Amino acid sequence: MSRDAGGGITAIMRHTGAEVVWECLIREGVDVVWAYPGGAALPIFDALAKYPQIHHVLVRHEQAAAHAADGYARATGKVGVCVATSGPGATNLVTGIATAMLDSVPMVALTAQVADSVIGTDAFQEINITGITLPITKHNYLVRQSRDLVRSLREAFYLAGTGRPGPVLVDLPKDILTGPCEFHYPERVSRLGYRPVVRSAPYQIQRAAQLIRDAKRPVVLSGHGVHVATAWEELRRFAERISAPVVSTLLGLSTLSADHPLCLGMAGMHGVAWANLAVQNADLLIALGMRMDDRFTGSLRHFAPQAKLLHVDIDPAEIGKRIPAALPMVGDVRIVLEALTAELPEIDHRDWLDQIGTWRERHPLAVHAVGSLPPQEVIRALYEATGGEAVLVSDVGQHQMWVAQHYRFRRLNSFFTSGGLGTMGYSLPAALGVQAGHPKEPVWVVVGDGSFQMNLQELATVAQERLPIKIVIMDNGYLGMVRQWQELFHGARYIGTPISGPDFVQLAGSYGIPARRVTATADLAAAFTAARESGGPYVLDCKVEQDENVYPMVQPGTSNTDFVEDPRGRAQEP
Amino acid sequence: MRHVLVALVQDEPAMLARMGNLFARRGYNVESFTAGASELPGVTRITIVVEGSSTALDQIAKQFRKLIGAVKVADVTADTDQLAHEMLLVKVGVNAKTRQEVVSLADLFKARIVDVSSTTLMLEATGEPDKLEKFLEVLKPFGIKEQARTGAVFISRGAKVLNQRQLSASDRKYLAG
Prior knowledge:
The structure holds two protein chains of two kinds.
Chain A: E1 13-16, H1 17-27, E2 32-35, H2 42-48, E3 55-58, H3 62-76, E4 80-84, H4 88-92, H5 94-102, E5 107-113, H6 129-132, E6 139-142, H7 149-161, E7 167-173, H8 174-178, E8 180-183, H9 202-214, E9 218-222, H10 224-228, H11 232-242, E10 246-248, E11 263-266, H12 273-281, E12 284-288, H13 294-297, E13 308-313, E14 327-330, H14 333-343, H15 350-362, H16 375-386, E15 391-394, H17 398-406, E16 415-416, H18 427-437, E17 443-448, H19 449-454, H20 459-465, E18 469-475, H21 480-489, H22 504-510, E19 515-518, H23 524-533, E20 538-543
Parallel strand pairs in A: 2-3, 2-4, 4-5, 5-7, 6-7, 9-10, 9-12, 10-11, 12-13, 13-14, 15-16, 15-17, 17-18, 18-20, 19-20
Antiparallel strand pairs in A: 1-8
Helix pairs in contact in A: 1-2, 1-7, 3-5, 3-18, 9-14, 11-14, 12-15, 16-17, 16-23
Chain B: E1 2-10, H1 15-25, E2 30-37, E3 43-51, H2 54-66, E4 70-75, E5 82-93, H3 99-108, E6 112-116, E7 120-127, H4 129-139, E8 144-149, E9 153-156, H5 169-176
């Protein structure tokens, strides 16, 4: 994943620092940035006039710039770039940077800073943003001399996009931006002590192959690292070779088509029952680019008690962090899978797959016809309208879990959501970036009425950029996931969770975005068709049943085999 | 259990904050933290003595290695063939009667007298932390007015060195800035 410098040796020319910033970005293949100007950032924006090849998107809040850069990076695998001014501009990026950090998303955040001569004096709009973002960036830079500018930017892109990706922030004092700066882009870049291991040793591959040959009930755990390593094909071939079922984490959804017979879907707190049962009864877990997050494992004491763990990750610190690995394998998932598949014969696990099939029949997902519009029906209608081929961004909460359960991702790398940080308000701004990565087709957003109200100002950006983003609001008048926890664990005292909102149809209208309200299951198909067929953005305000809970659910601190199913009894498969 | 981490890190701004963050976030109390120039230009050698379980320290060492600018990180706790030395400056209260007694104790511990006033003696001692501990113990009855310890630095005996890898020409150029 090392980034090409592009071009050969560039002639040394006189530029301003701000021009050099754009020159560097162009060398890194950047053609779009999400940005918000301000006093200290003025030189960066002023210089942009000379670089028409860069498309600059004016967002309505810096947090959205960070999420958009994040969405773009997830959709394309390229480093996403956001730009903000000093002080409040920079602090507004923080949630977006942290979101990218927790989900290993390559991002370069550029912040303007007050002039070097006044740093440390609490000057107007001065904040120590490198200090603030120290724990939420892979690395950050404060450029204090013009001669460090190019190296810092070159390294920022290199670090963001290689190894375990992550956000890198570069803080740019105003006088560095306005002052003269030599520009020569180095073709090669390296950091002492930074050498991500991508290839596992041959004897490790052989030991892994032996573990897999010995296993009777193997399960592959597919995580976000499979997307990052673009290892979708390698995953499918590997799973087929050893006929092992593939369970995914939330961010591992769409690493294997949901139509594939070996694809079990998501396990964990709101995972489907058969996936949890498969993991809990496995004798070998082959973990690929996933970090055994607590929402995935449930109680560690009860997690997969009979299983050995073969753990593949590019970050050695993730291996053995929560669960000791019988075989740690540091490396790039794609390269490791390729080597491993070559080492393995065809293996048949029919009995094991049959067993999982029985669990699947016994514990299907429930959709109960409560009220006029069950939320799960909205997700199923979205699936029907898009054939499971949508590019889909989800926000955080109940609707996110219903997407994970009920939407069948038939298309690879088609699902984008905030997993690790669980950032409400992520979806709409992230969709700006996902859309830039998929310019020829609509991007679908599924969002709760709470999450939507956290960043709905970006409707203006959607309208301004005329993006065909289809926003499906799962509108239940509650912060639904928190309400569910209040119902189950806090005596049904709904404090702080009932949430009002505007008339979303009128709101969309005021931005010039067509919208429609849906109140009954019978109206879903027509509404989704209208949204899909409209050329531009569209808002569907789906008034879903208020009191619906997400099931199955593994209660905190319990085993993933003790999932609670819908108390209304046997499910109805439509 | 007491663990000793030795690290080589690039000498650059915020490196100290990055390392501090690592321990603070996980609630570790660092017993001592020493930093000073290593044999490599632009590279600082850090010695950290910290209390914690082996699995916890293993995780910290891994997170430490992830810091950009960390060149080498090793848990040297298990190395039995190494020197661990620390320096101590201690100001002891004395009077005409006790001064000679303190001087002879300093002699016993191979400490140097570095400052004298009518009511105090300042002593400088180096050696294993345990030895300095004992020295402080015997000085206690005289009245310790002030003490400053550097924290121990560790280095293994024999030909073995921490940084086995030879720096390339480009590494050297990089470090030279």
